[in-house]
Amino acid sequence: MIKLETKRLLIRDHIEEDLDNLFDLISRPFEMRFIMDLFVVDLKGAEENLIISMRGIGKQSRKHYFFAIIEKETSKYIGEIGFTVLDENSSGKLLELGYFTKREFWGQGLTTEAAELCIDFAFKELDAWKITTGCVKENIASERIMIKLGFRKEGDLKEHQSVNQEWKDRVLYGLLKSEYKMEA
Fold this sequence. Notes:
The protein is α+β, with helices and mostly antiparallel strands.
């Protein structure tokens, strides 16, 4: 089981007891408005999501690294962060970073803090050579996090993602291991 820690956060593989917290987050229309493909209306949908999140735990050929973000001081569940392995060869892995958190934790730097630790982990432990990420262009807060993390803008996709039956523009960002400043 993967467990990562910052001063304020525990970032860990999922456990079965995360179901209610995960459901609470991914059933919130406001928080999920830009990633409606993860939005659920019932506990069964959240359970399916949790099963996918837990499927690769402990396996060498893991394709998904989805983690719960927990506030250490209060043990409160904050949200989700993780990677999908998009490609892999002898030079390393291409990973896609994703994150989403409960609204009451926004604006405190917690998502950025969690992402910094996960990026460090990806480059040091997962043999990543590049991490990509992106968001609907309207999601300015998420794009701001990407910039703070040192990601470089790599593209603008016009009317690329469907959100509530409307085509939205998407921005793409990337970060190469060779450009990332890792702490020893």
